[in-house]
Amino acid sequence: MFIAFFSWWYGRGWQQVVGDFKLRVSNVIDSFSVRQLSKTLFAPWKRIVTQPGRNLEDHLHAAADNAFSRAVGFVVRLGVLFTALIAILVIGLLSIIEIIAWPLLPVAVPGLIIAGLVL
Question: Which residues are CB-neighbours of 37 under 8 A, at least 6 positions away?
Answer without folding.
Answer: 77, 80, 81
